[in-house]
Amino acid sequence: MDERIRYAFEHTEILRRPKQLISTFGSSVIHYYVLTEPVYSEFTKDNLETVVREGKVSWYQPKLLTPTYMFRIEGFSKEAKNAFETLASQYPDLAGILYKFKVNKELDEMNFVSGPLLTVAENINNEIDKKKDSLCTVIKGVAGLWDVSLSKFILDMMVRSVYSAQIPDFTSRGFLGINQVGQTTITKDRHGVPVAARKEIEKLFKLVKKGKLKPIKLKEELDNWGLFEHYQDRFFNLFKKSL
């Protein structure tokens, strides 16, 4: 890791965490405040200011996947795909959770606020409490590397969510199980189809029938799970009924 990034990670503090974790069943939007001292602070010790950056991070609905699914989808480097392919050959039923997020631009502000950082943080905390907003975070960041500080929060949010939200939720729905060595694995039905995949595919078939989803998206999902042959008759019947 680059030394400046390592420094930013080590000196970033999450002063307030959201009271809710990333939702298993839908999207999640977190309002963030990243507070840093201005880069010129050492020259203005008598007039303390805090830089407050405000914005939102959105997570799409987390997706439960197998290593085979992971190395089939786009967006990964060659090295990452090789790693997933190795996992897929050795642990085909190993469960993984894919998180996709974006930093929203509709609320992206930077303000200079009078007062030391911790005092400004306390004032923001009080405002959040008044609004009773459970999806806010306050982060003490590093000047010049505030986006690295935000990245630390994003990673923290995903790690806490996977253990405290996603794994319990997926397990309660029968999507996950534990193998003999304690690994979290995908639960399959009597036909050998992952239960999570079955649920998702059924939902996509309904959307295609209603005209709300293009068939190519359904085909991609079937291919990623390696289940097209299992569903191909039903898939082609979609077109017969539309003729």
Which keywords apply here?
243 residues; alpha+beta; two-stranded antiparallel ribbon; 8 helices; 9 strands
Number of helices: 8
Strand fraction equals: 15-25%
Low-confidence stretches: none
The secondary-structure element order is: HEEEEHHEEHEHEEHHH
- Profile the largest sheet: 5 strands, mixed
Alpha-beta content class: alpha+beta
Number of domains: 2
Q: Sum up the overall morphology in one term.
A: elongated
List the helices and strands and how they pair.
Elements: H1 3-11, E1 13-16, E2 28-36, E3 49-59, E4 63-65, H2 67-72, H3 78-90, E5 96-98, E6 101-114, H4 117-131, E7 136-140, H5 146-172, E8 176-178, E9 184-186, H6 195-209, H7 215-225, H8 228-242
Parallel strand pairs: 2-7
Antiparallel strand pairs: 1-7, 2-3, 3-6, 4-5, 8-9
Please explain how this structure is put together.
By secondary structure, this protein is an alpha+beta fold. It has two domains: 3-62 and 99-172, no CATH class; 188-242, no CATH class. The protein contains eight helices and nine strands. A five-stranded mixed β-sheet has the order 1-7-2-3-6, sandwiched between helices. Strands 4-5 form a two-stranded antiparallel sheet. A hairpin with a 5-residue loop joins strand 8 and strand 9 (184-186). It is elongated and about 75 Å long. The model has no long low-confidence stretch (mean pLDDT 91).
